Amino acid sequence: MLLQNKQVAIVGGGPGGLSTARLLQIKGAQVTVYERDVNQEARVQGATLDLHEESGLEALRRAGLIDAFYSHHRPDAGKLRLVDKHAVIMLDDHTAETAYAEDRPEIDRGPLRKILMGSLKPGTIVWDSQFVSMDKHQEGWVLHFRNGQSAYADVVIAADGANSSIRPYLTSIQPVYSGVTIVEGNLYHAAKHAPALNDLVKGGKVFAFGDEQSLILSAKGDGCLSFYTGCKVPETWMRESGIDFTSRDAVRTWFMSAFGTWDPVWQELFASDELYFIPRPQYHYPLDQTWPAHPNLTMLGDAAHRMPPYAGEGVNMAMQDAFELADCLTSDEYPDLQTAIEVYEKQMRLRAMEITRVTLENTALLHATDALDNMVAMMQG
């Protein structure tokens, strides 16, 4: 095996990095995951994830975790309601007339992460290890972390997300702004604080459209509602708007202005003091991006191919990266690690190119003047 007697470092403990660690350990590789969070409870996990047959679910099958997934997934979480800005329902997966097929089963991010973490050997994850830099050393790398610790690895895999600190060691290609910025929020105890919206979501999802804007709500198994506003604003809007995104009142004031023609029911999103908001300008990498393969360094997931969320492919792409990379690194058909990495990266970039194209088409469609009509027509086939 190409990884015989080699130490692999995976930087980033999201689904992509954890899936890679699990799949490599099954093949007998020595793997350490370095995660910036202080512990597994340090950060609120975002919206539910729908896993696709050929990618996310396939990764879990190969990892021997598909039964655990179905023990924790949420069967009705994928049921969708399409509504206009006045919360009038235009299409409803909950109605008897609609044949709902669970072809992309849903799971909350927290349970998925726990399933993957629980499958790893004890001590695999090193917490409180935020990557700062790394230096070439012998045939590998010495990684340096903010906590002052350092570690050697023969092979480094960047799974550290859209703002990857390792990607610049591979390529200088910069991301392109999509034209849309999301404000992500999480509302706790939704049944208490936002009863009308909680009833509207009905344990599933709501996609609302109007004025070239989007508002996506997802119910979580813990009683929270996660939501994402989507607005066409300049790339510099986040820093030039003057909005204090740590302040509920400041974000609510912005929302009431930006979504001023929307029904007041949406303002329930701000009815609780238990809220958080994160502005996220949406970027993507050029469809034709490329870089030379390295013998001891590669990347996966958003670090390699960040894109807006409007095709539901982010986690699925990362988990498919995981099993394709693990296969290449543990294969006997390649003469060396550089060749194995080159094969993986070529097929990954081709796949990402097509998914990015589709995602950008969806991003434009969901923020067009006729977004709701387009979505209803699409969902009705």
UniProtKB/TrEMBL annotation:
Sequence positions that bind NADPH: R43
Binding-site positions, FAD: D50, R109, D302
Enzyme class of the recorded protein, top EC level: oxidoreductase
Highest taxon of the lineage: Bacteria
Subcellular location: Cytoplasm
Cofactor (UniProt): FAD
Keyword 4Fe-4S attributed: no
Keyword tags: Cytoplasm, FAD, Flavoprotein, Monooxygenase, NADP, Nucleotide-binding, Oxidoreductase
Gene3D superfamilies linked to this entry: FAD/NAD(P)-binding domain
Catalytic reaction list: a tetracycline + NADPH + O2 + H(+) = an 11a-hydroxytetracycline + NADP(+) + H2O
Gene Ontology molecular function: any one: monooxygenase activity
Stretches assigned to the FAD-binding domain: 7-202, 298-355
Written domain comment of the UniProt record: Consists of an N-terminal FAD-binding domain with a Rossman fold and a C-terminal substrate-binding domain.
Assembly description: Monomer.
Alphabetized PANTHER family for the sequence: FAD DEPENDENT OXIDOREDUCTASE DOMAIN-CONTAINING PROTEIN (PTHR46972:SF1), MONOOXYGENASE ASQM-RELATED (PTHR46972)
Record-stated family: Belongs to the aromatic-ring hydroxylase family. TetX subfamily.
Its job: An FAD-requiring monooxygenase active on some tetracycline antibiotic derivatives, which leads to their inactivation. Hydroxylates carbon 11a of tetracycline and some analogs.
Protein name: Flavin-dependent monooxygenase
